[in-house]
Design brief:
Layout: H1 3-21, E1 28-33, H2 34-41, H3 48-55, E2 68-71, E3 76-81, H4 83-92, H5 97-108, H6 114-124, E4 129-132, E5 141-144, E6 154-160, E7 163-169, H7 171-175
Helix pairs in contact: 1-4
Length: about 180
């Protein structure tokens, strides 16, 4: 079981939320599709209930505190992080320059062009990829760094009615889109 990969993912998601919305000392609930969480952990399971049982008592003492897991409607798993986890991320995890920059970029301009996004990515590495996505998908483009430096996420972008939005995905989740 790849516990470290899950902790890293949770920290990155909490940091993104804190950069976008600010810090609040409260319990955080993140929701994962069963297959995404199982893939992240490197676990083969049949369903969300089986995965939830495997995770019981596995994350008692982490840098984020005790993590708890519960199954939700459909095939989702809720990961509950105590308020001490939010405090840890705020106090101990530096703001990643790339993530801070892309959030600022989207906050300053709600109608970015793909050229502007490519220019932003190029500031961090000339080795980024920008691909047009297949028709019929929920997004128009995907941008990412193949060597995962300075960021390992896949940024799926949609240009819609004068607004530009992005969603971040792990490589595994992007490949399953």
């Amino acid at each position: 079981m790849n516990k470290e990969k899950l902790i890293e993912n949770l920290i990155e998601q909490i940091k993104e939320a804190q950069l976008k919305l600010g810090f609040v000392k409260e319990t955080i609930r993140l929701y994962f599709p069963f297959r995404s969480l199982a893939g992240l952990l490197g676990i083969a399971c049949e369903n969300s209930q089986e995965l939830q049982k495997l995770l019981e008592n596995e994350f008692e003492d982490t840098v984020l505190g005790k993590l708890t897991f519960s199954t939700c409607k459909g095939d989702r798993i809720e990961v509950r992080i105590p308020a001490s986890g939010a405090v840890y991320v705020k106090n101990e995890v530096p703001d990643p320059p790339f993530l801070s920059g892309i959030i600022d970029l989207f906050q300053q301009n709600h109608s970015l062009t793909i050229s502007e996004l490519c220019s932003f990515f190029a500031q961090f590495s000339s080795q980024y990829i920008c691909k047009k996505m297949e028709p019929g998908t929920d997004f128009d483009y995907v941008l990412y760094f193949p060597d995962q430096q300075p960021d390992s996420w896949y940024y799926c972008v949609r240009l819609e009615m004068g607004h530009t939005i992005y969603h971040r995905f792990t490589e595994e989740d992007y490949r399953s889109l």
